[in-house]
Amino acid sequence: MNKLLLPALLAAVLAACSSTPPAGDGAPVEGRTADTGAKVTTVTTGSVDATGLPRELTDGKSILSKRVVYFDYDKYDIKDEYKDLVAAHAKFLTGNRQFKVLVQGNTDERGSREYNLSLGQKRADAVKRNLMLLGAKEEQIESVSLGKEKPADDGHDEAAWAKNRRAQILYKGPTGNGEF
Amino acid sequence: MKKLLCTLALCGSLGAACFSPVHAQLSIEIAGVGANRVPVAVADFAGETASGRALTSVIRGDLANSGLFRLIEIGPGLNESGPGNFADLKAKGADALAAGSLTDAGGGRMEARYRLFDVNKQVSLSGLARVTTAAQLRAAGHQIADDVYEKLTGVRGVFATRIAYVTRAPGRYALQIADSDGQNAVAALVSPEPIISPTWSPDGSRIAYVSFEQKKPVIYVHSLATGRRTVIANFKGSNSAPAWSPDGRKLAVVLTKDGNSQIYTVNPDGSSLQRLSNSSGIDTEPRFSADGAFIYFTSDRGGSPQIYRMGANGGEVQRISFEGSYNVTPRPSPDGKSLAYITRREGSFQLVLMDLASKQVQVLTDSRKDESPSFAPNGSMILIATEIGGRGVLAAVSPDGRIKQRLSVSSGDVREPAWGPFLQ
User: Fold this and answer.
1) Which of A24, B92, B256, B323 has the most CB atoms within 10 Å of its CB?
2) Largest CA distance in chain A
3) Domains of chain B
């Protein structure tokens, strides 16, 4: 099996590195028949390449490099301590209309994956609403949820959960370059 | 930078392919059995080489793991023409005998023949012949085991079905398709980002799932044979929780394009989007009832997540769960009589089964992190994801809670199981 897959895997990875963007469609790979002629073909996806954003968004000394807002348990409103951070991003988006953000909401690990996806959306939506109240335009912002799928901390205690109940802001520049 | 990343990715993939099995194989372990197991003898198939009794071992494994049969040891020398006399089998306590043979059919093909006998009545109950190949021998074994199961229990077997699940290793998620016993796993999708909520089309040819490869949840329909993928929902916001209608002509999905998570239906090619639910809260995790008349779903419209149902085209909503403050992930049984879902009790998430007529609820597990229940197509078992020793594993439990199986891989997490339909 490994022998069969290896060249295929290699081809798929190489394909992802070619000039075509590694979008959803990887090179289909012939798998083996599992039973009664029911064949399964392997697809390998690519990932996003994050480069080329202005320094003020990435420089550790700039408030705009801070992209994470944390939430309390079962809460979906932005705490006072994160109001300045959100305001700074709103100001940047207002002054740079050609920039876009993806706001990803997250939850802790407890409970159903899909229900958590819906709860994470509420956190992303809260950030989006605040950015818009402070001048950013709706077409600059997409709020989405990663639910409990991308924890910042893999631990299983309250300290880890607190780090995971968050929304994070990703930027994309005018030429489509960026973090999403 | 891009070059470096690609070189790293190449090494990573090669490393994984070279030093660890690409397809982490699931192994099955039985932890509880039925109250009255049928004593059955499965003879060594004549003509099978002693070193690789693939056929015989698949049939024995299937029957033993189902928890419904007690295997009776029997000596060699039998085939599908049965024993000269049944006295020996009777003395050993066997109620039934499965015996058969494997012969060379030429051109690399083999013929598997089998017959099932009632030991007490000394008559043949059933028989099958399958032309097969070495690669398909396990499949033939599952079909024979299904025949034994059906003739002795009166219920259609599910050994020849497939299951889907997601494995997670650091930085690598894979949607695996395997036989019902966890063997022959093949990855349908490999991605650096999470994959959740796989569900089988009713004909078993396609799987709908949510992939995060675009940094957000997007719903795909994936043809297993060709690997062709269709984005069926990538609206602004999150797209998740796909569920096929029983006729395979549409899917219920959850979108946030109009605000909070709400339920819509869409065709498998992404056309004909229609909004079904209309609440100010969260509506998610839709599932059609087996007859296609209702959609069960999770909603927090009453303050806490509870299970509701509405007509398959929307309309009047009825609350189904009342006990407790967290009831999620409804899965109606294939016979339409019961509903499996996850409840929170004292901080633990456990699988429960509700009898829809009496509204009686039975807790089926004592684990702490149950998720994503999935009925076998004959309703005999419910497959779930749970956690043992900090690792994600799959487990299966019968609706009466007696029969328990565990399926785990040697390393990494397994989650998001989905039991496929009967093979057509």
Assistant:
1) B256
2) 61
3) 28-153 (3.40.50.10070), 162-419 (2.120.10.30)
